[in-house]
Design a protein that fits this description.
The chain has 259 residues and is α/β, with parallel strands linked by helices. The protein has one domain: 2-Layer Sandwich (Nucleotidyltransferase, domain 5). The protein contains nine helices and six strands. The chain has a six-stranded mixed beta sheet. Helix 8 packs across helix 9. The longest helix is centred in the C-terminal third of the chain and has 22 residues. The chain is globular and about 50 Å long. The two termini are 33 Å apart. The relative contact order is 0.19.
Length: 259
């Protein structure tokens, strides 16, 4: 059975950026038939109900920044009652839909201070840790899968493709190449633009920011206060983060702090 890992990032990989000290990558693992038969119909129906999504005449793609700013077509959320119903419905899907979540975060300042001579690109470092957990999950369940992200910029995407292929060809210090190649169906990472309306990418974008801020809260003490974000995080902790199959621990499995 084939699976897919959809990935979204919060922050950037610029180690000189003081204002954005933390970068995280969040991935959701889902079986492809679960994505096509459950995730996609549910999210498409939700968009149709609230925002008039009606392809091909009107295609609405969930984009967190536009939703938070309540820009068209999300301007109906200025109405408090509509917004409350939207958030309740979205929380319900985040809890109900079939996926496993993993968030990897890096403290870029600590990374630079720890590795003064040689520094792994923070994005690629997080990606490697995320792919390791995905491959180990696939291996435990006897499954195979691929990886999908949104494109960023041509130069960054080219480097990411190279980094991903290197993991496929050589493995990591924790996982041999043979295991990686047995579990991943391709040595190429797949890029899907936002306009492709891939519902798995929209779902991971919705949960990525709450998961980012929650993990930062746990490690730095910077309190997370956003009500909706806290609701998302409560669902993730209760039933969606990857866990140690023996102990049920989330740390190191569904959440990973680097370096």
């Amino acid at each position: 059975m084939t699976c897919r890992l959809f990935i979204d990032e919060v922050g950037n990989d610029d180690t000189r950026s003081v204002s954005e000290r933390y970068l995280s990558l969040t991935g959701i693992i889902t079986k492809t038939h679960g994505h096509d038969r459950r995730i996609t119909p549910a999210i498409e129906a939700l968009k149709a109900k609230f925002f008039g999504h009606d392809p091909p005449r009107k295609v609405v793609v969930l984009h967190r920044r536009e939703i938070v700013r309540r820009e068209p077509p999300f301007d109906c959320l200025w109405d408090d009652d509509t917004n409350a119903k939207w958030e309740d419905a979205l929380i319900g899907l985040i809890e109900y839909l079939p996926y496993i979540a993993i968030t990897v975060m890096i403290d870029k300042l600590e990374h630079v201070e720890k590795y003064t001579v040689w520094q792994f690109n923070p994005y690629h470092y997080c990606m490697r840790a995320l792919i390791e957990r995905y491959v180990l999950w696939l291996n435990r369940h006897g499954l195979i899968g691929d990886v999908v992200v949104e494109p960023r910029f041509k130069k960054q995407d080219k480097k990411l493709k190279k980094s991903f292929s290197y993991i496929y060809d050589h493995g990591t210090e924790h996982i041999p190449a043979s295991t990686v190649q047995r579990c991943l169906t391709s040595r190429e990472i797949k890029f899907e633009p936002k306009e492709a309306n891939v519902c798995g990418l929209q779902l991971v974008e919705i949960i990525a920011h709450p998961s980012h801020h929650a993990l930062k809260w746990e490690y730095t003490g910077e309190v997370m206060t956003a009500r909706f974000g806290l609701q998302v995080y409560e669902v993730l902790r209760r039933c969606r983060y990857a866990r140690n199959p023996k102990t049920g621990d989330i740390a190191g499995w569904g959440q990973k702090w680097l370096p």
